[in-house]
Amino acid sequence: MAFPALFVSHGAPSAALDDDAYTRALGAWARRRPKPRAIVVVSAHAEALGPARVNSGARPSLVYDFYGFAPRLYDLRYPAPGAPDLAREVAGSFSAAGLDTVLDAQRGWDHGVWVPLRLLYPAADVPVVEVSLPVPRNPEVLLTMGRALAPMREKGVLLFGSGGLVHNLRRLRSENADGPPEPWAHAFGEWVDARLEALDVVGLAAYAAEAPNADLAVPTTEHFDPVFFVLGAREDRDRVESVCQGFRYGTLSLRSFALAAP
Hints:
- It is built from nine helices and ten strands.
- It has helices at 21-31, 84-96, 111-120, 139-149, 183-197, 201-205, 207-210, 214-217, 226-232; strands at residues 5-9, 38-49, 52-55, 101-104, 128-135, 157-163, 239-244, 247-248, 252-253, 256-260.
- The longest helix is centred in the C-terminal third of the chain and has 15 residues, at 183-197.
- It is globular.
């Protein structure tokens, strides 16, 4: 049976230090199934002009691409190995699908990779390959990336999108982490959920024009785009499996889901 594909709204970097319903939900999801053979992740925090860049390093470093958090957050490590052979396979699959691709052995893993992976697989014993978001791009590019790698699910590879379905830091309510979401954020999230449950990929790809409050919920696309990588990897038997719901700070969605056969 194919390994699930997973989308995680990775929240704030401080999630790496938290013990709450969100962090426990991610860990519980991972523990319910065997570990993947490897992970290929598309993160909101890795954008690059031109072709998709596939991290081919054997031991990528961590990038602490945030500021103003507790000092101990910058001391955290995630020493999982890279997977150079898998990176070359990823690049070959992209090229066969008509996607421009380059291997990159230099860039480290941003917090969209190592923070959720610490929660999912804290032993850091699953090899990881990160793929950048190409610039420019549109939903069809990300769907093509997911389709190109979908056969890897049959080999036990976790295809993982890390971003956020609602992500507006300018409207963050920093004084009320656990308060209710802003009405506009809730309305957008409900619209997305309805289309996810129906696996209405065409509808989701039109979110910018069709969804309520899309300009507020997705002021820039990098956090929403990884969802299309995951949806591109879907199989006919897949259904949406909820991993986590809710919001932090009123405008930061924690909605996470997997595509898996029932």
